[in-house]
Design goal:
globular; 5-stranded mixed β-sheet; disordered C terminus
Amino acid sequence: MSKDEIFDPLDPEVLADPFPAYKRLREFDPVYWHEGLNSWIVTRYADCALVLDNSDIFANDFRRIGIPTPTPILNLQTLDPPEQTPLRLFATSALHAQDLTKLDQEVSRHADELLDSLAGRDSFDFVRDFADPFTLGTISKLVGVEPSAQDALWDQMNDDLDRSMDSTLVPDSEEAGLDARAKFSQLVDSWLKPGATKGLVGYIVAHESETGVSREILVNSLRAFWHAGFEVPSRFLGNAIGALLKRPEAIAYLHNASSFDTAVNELVRFAPPVHVLSRGCTRDIQIGGKQIKSGQIVIAAIAAGNRDPEQFADPEQLKLDRSPNQHLGFGRGAHSCLGAQVARIEARIAFSKLAKRFPEMHATGEVKMRPNATLRGPEFLPMTLGPEKRSVAVSG
C-alpha cells in the first residue's frame, strides 16, 4: 500500500494512538477517498451508522460486488441477508438455549481465581495473565469445550489470523490468515461429534439439520464466533484497563458503583477493540455529498464515529455515567455482535472485581500495543493490583 499523506493507519504514531488521526481525518474530509486503500473512509457517526444499518446497499459479502471470497472466510459474520438469515436465527436460538445465569456464576468464580493468583505480585502482564485466560475460559464454557492450550503454535495462528484482518494494508498476510482459519475450523469440526451435549456444541449437534447451511459454513461460523469470543473481549479488556489505569478517579468511580452497565457502555465507546468495518457498495449512492459508486469499498471507521462531537458531548472524555450512549462498538444491523450479552457479562464481572477488590491497582510500566489497525489492543500491559480492600463486598 502506498503511503497516504492524510491518513496512514500503519504509521507508528497512529498505531500507538489512532484517535488524533481519526479526528484530523474527520475534520479534513469525513468522506475521504484513500488512494492507498482504494476505498472510501467515513469517520462521522451518522455515516458509519448508515453503512452498517443498510446491508442491502453496503455488502459484507464481497462476492456481491464481484470480489471472490475464499471458502474459509464464508460464515455467519460475512454472509448477508437473505442467505445469512436462517443461520443467524439458528445462532440466536442456540444462544437463547444456554443458561447465562450459570455462565455468569462460573465466570465470576474464574475471575476471582485469576485475581487471587495475581494478588500480591509486584507486577504481571494483564493481557497474558488475566484477559486472555479469562475470555478464553468464558467462551469455552459457552461453547461447551475445554480451553485450548495456549502454546507457541496457538500464538502464531492467532497472530496470523489477526494480521490478516489488515490484509488490505499488508497483502502478504492473507495466505497465513486463511491457513490459520482452516486449522481453527478443523479444531472446531472435531468438537461437533455425536454425543456432545454441552453448550453451543451440544445444541448444534442436536439441531444441525435445522441450520439450512452446509456443514462447512456451519463449522466456519462456530469457529468465527468462538475465536472472536476470546480475541475481541480480551483486546477490549486490555484497552479499557489501560484507560482506567491512567484515570484513578475512574477507578474510584467504579469502586463505589452499584451498577456497571452504563460504565461498560462508555468503555466500549471510548476504548473499543474493533476500529474499522469494511463494506462493498452494491449501487451508486451519495454520502456527505460524495458519490460512492457501485463496486467501491467503504470503510466505516466506527472508532472514529464513537468520538464524533455531533453525536457525543465531550467525546474525547471518558464519562462512565454517560447516558444515552448509542455507541457503535457492537456494530449495527444484520451483523451486530451476537456475543454482546456475553461480552457485557465479562466486562461487568472483570471491572467490578478489579475496582472493588483492588481500587489501588496501578500500572508498573509502559503499555506495548499490537501492530494491528483493525483489531486493536495491548500486547503487553504491566500492572499490579495493590492491597485488597477486604471490607468491601465483591460485586459481580
